[in-house]
Design brief:
Layout lengths: L10 E8 L3 E7 L5 E7 L7 H14 L10 E7 L2 E6 L7 H8 L4 H20 L2 E2 L8 E4 L3 E4 L6 E2 L31 H17 L9 H10 L10 H10 L11 H14 L8 H4 L32 E10 L9 H12 L6 E2 L1 H5 L6 E7 L1 H13 L3 E6 L6 H21 L12 H16 L4 E2 L10 H8 L1 H4 L6 H20 L6 H26 L9 H48 L2 H17 L1
Helix pairs in contact: 3-4, 3-7, 4-6, 6-7, 12-13, 14-17, 16-17, 16-18, 17-18, 18-19
């Protein structure tokens, strides 16, 4: 971007736009060159904090030079007033284009979205977070070149040495990420969420969430599922959904990843290969306590710490014993909750069909022939769903509650039989054969009511040894990571490493690198959690030298973890693309069986690996 420095003095022209704190005027220098000048309103001109933020905006942005960012020259004085001099962009805002053209066709959307993501990536690489990215803050030069503007709420990615206002909750509710209410959790991925909101609005003509009040909108961002994006390619819909993931760990980890994905979609129409833990681990188990996707190999839910269920054969039985008295039917809502959880966890190999068709009486057998650790883990999960359980060694006959239920049910059958025979006096034994069978049937039925049966499924693919060891150690190390956002950050690295191991099974040296990534992420998450515990008792608005030192250390660990996850994202996308290309080449090769083509394919595969 070629920007010519202004020649003072400058003369103010007409007003181009108004905000709550400042107004933007047209400004002309003595050579006739036109600029945009951002001036504080008179009501804020003497406000020290407003002036400080104004100067900070200039300091953050003066060094940024990118075709998709509004150019910033720095601070100046115009007619005795503080002014921030900017590149003048002639054209509508993205908000105007959305109002007149949304829903946009996919080609138009991609043509605008990729440069926006590229400009955001440049700002992030320079250590700047926008914090108020929205369509009205994106100017579209000549109607086709977007430029991100208004970094008035921006802050450095580093928390140490920044303005105390960086810890304030800022932004526009329609585009604020779920973590925005916790300033320490805000990082470049919060801008990626805002970008996802913008992409959704370009596709659907409205923001993804709405409510009667700003707090209602924020609550929607935090808890409501992302509305479906229809009428577009699966790749674009998946990318928008990934950007809008509730947890920052499940979004693309860098704006460059988003820009690359959008560029691939625009150039080839191929589905964007964006990694999210939910997307790559779909079909796996979900946690009974928090509903998050579980990485089976980890043996623990990395969101809440609940030990995950991994069934293996043994001699133990799991009974559901409550709530309610012996013989009472299970509450229908709890039954439906249990059925839904079992259906969401096909890896458990428990078939809920019988449970879905009947409401059992307490107690009932949930699973049989399990190893004790499996039975105990299943018990903990079911208890998190609101039921009480019992684990017994052996079959259900060893449960006193189950025997009592069987006798109680048999007694009910006896009463029914006696009632049906009232007035019938017969010495014939045959008259009592059927009733006796009912009594015995009731007794047996009370003992044998098992509502779930174990299914036989193919064994899961095991991880390579070093990665399996690193992932297997997580359950013991999770208690030290008590901050949920850092558990999510660790889960992001682990889930990506597991997916890469499955994609590249057998590749030499790969196991060691992925194991090292998991170990590094575990240390980083534990360090960050410990630092946040300490910082929780300090005044971040008035930090002393010790607090600044802690913030510096937090910056280093946070940046290291984020860079590691972003690297795995990029690695996964490249490896997936290479795998698809090899499969296509192999299909062609099988068709013509050309030996030269075989050699060419092997060389190209080596070049792909070399370039990774």
């Amino acid at each position: 971007m070629d920007l010519t420095e202004p020649s003072p003095p400058l003369r103010l022209g007409d007003v181009l736009g108004q905000g709550a704190v400042a107004a933007v005027h047209r400004a002309v220098d003595q050579n006739g060159q036109v600029f945009a000048a951002k001036l504080l309103h008179d009501s804020h001109a003497l406000d020290e904090s407003a002036v400080r933020r104004f100067r900070q905006e200039a300091e953050l942005l003066t060094a940024l030079r990118h075709p998709n960012l509004v150019g910033v020259y720095g601070m100046s004085q115009i007619e005795g007033r503080h002014a921030l001099l900017l590149e003048l962009v002639e054209g509508p805002t993205l908000a105007t284009l959305i109002a007149t053209h949304a829903p946009m066709d996919e080609a138009k959307l991609l043509a605008l979205a990729e440069p926006i993501a590229a400009g955001l990536a440049h700002a992030h690489s320079a250590g700047v977070i926008h914090r108020d990215l929205k369509p009205s803050n994106i100017l579209v030069k000549d109607g086709h070149t977007p430029k991100i503007a208004d970094f008035g709420m921006a802050r450095a990615t580093s928390f140490a040495g920044i303005d105390p206002g960086a810890f304030a909750i800022l932004g526009t509710p329609d585009y604020m990420a779920p973590e925005s209410l916790d300033p320490l959790a805000v990082d470049p991925r919060s801008d990626i969420y805002a970008l996802g909101c913008i992409l959704f609005e370009m596709a659907c003509g409205r923001p993804p969430f709405s409510a009667a009040t700003p707090f209602g909108v924020l609550d929607e961002h935090r808890h409501s599922p992302v509305p479906a994006v229809t009428g577009y390619s699966p790749g674009l819909s998946a990318l928008i959904e990934a950007c809008l993931a509730k947890s920052p760990a499940d979004r693309p980890q860098s704006a460059k990843t988003v820009a690359d994905a959008l560029k691939r979609l625009a150039s080839s129409g191929q589905s964007a290969l964006v990694f999210t833990s939910g997307g790559q681990l779909q079909g796996e188990s979900t946690c009974a306590a928090c509903g998050q996707v579980i990485i089976p190999e980890a043996g623990v839910c990395m969101a809440c710490g609940l030990v995950s269920v991994q069934l293996s054969p043994g001699k133990h039985t799991v009974l559901v014993t409550g709530p309610g008295e012996i013989g009472d039917k299970l509450d229908a809502k709890l039954r439906n909750k249990l059925v839904a959880w079992l259906r969401d966890n096909p890896g458990l190999r428990l078939d809920p069909k019988r449970l879905a068709k009947t409401i059992p009486r307490m107690p009932f057998t949930l699973a049989i022939r399990l190893a004790k650790p499996s039975a105990e883990a299943l018990k903990l999960s079911v208890e998190r769903l609101g039921m009480s359980c019992e684990v017994i060694a052996g079959n259900q006959l060893k449960s006193k509650a189950m025997r009592t239920k069987a006798i109680k049910m048999a007694g009910r059958v006896v009463l029914i039989v006696l009632g049906s025979l009232a007035g019938v006096w017969s010495t014939s034994g045959a008259a009592f054969v059927a009733p006796l069978a009912l009594v015995v049937g009731g007794l047996i039925g009370g003992l044998s009511q098992t509502v779930c049966v174990t299914k036989t499924l193919p064994p899961q693919t095991s991880l390579p040894p070093m990665l399996a060891e690193s992932v297997g150690n997580l359950a013991a190390r999770m208690p030290a990571i008590d901050q949920q956002r850092h558990r999510h950050g660790l889960r992001a690295v682990v889930s990506r490493s597991v997916a890469l191991a499955r994609l590249n099974e057998g590749q030499a040296g790969f196991d060691e690198e992925l194991a090292h990534a998991v170990n590094t992420a575990t240390v980083a998450a534990a360090k960050l959690s410990a630092l946040d515990r300490t910082l929780a008792s300090t005044d971040l608005a008035q930090p002393d030298d010790h607090t600044r030192s802690l913030l510096h250390e937090r910056d280093r660990w946070s940046a290291r973890l984020l860079e590691l996850t972003a690297t795995l994202d990029g690695f996964y996308a490249r490896m997936s693309s290479a795998t698809q290309q090899r499969q296509t080449a192999l299909a062609t090769l099988e068709a013509d069986d050309d030996p030269l083509a075989q050699l060419r394919l092997r060389v190209e595969s080596l070049e792909e690996v070399q370039n990774l």
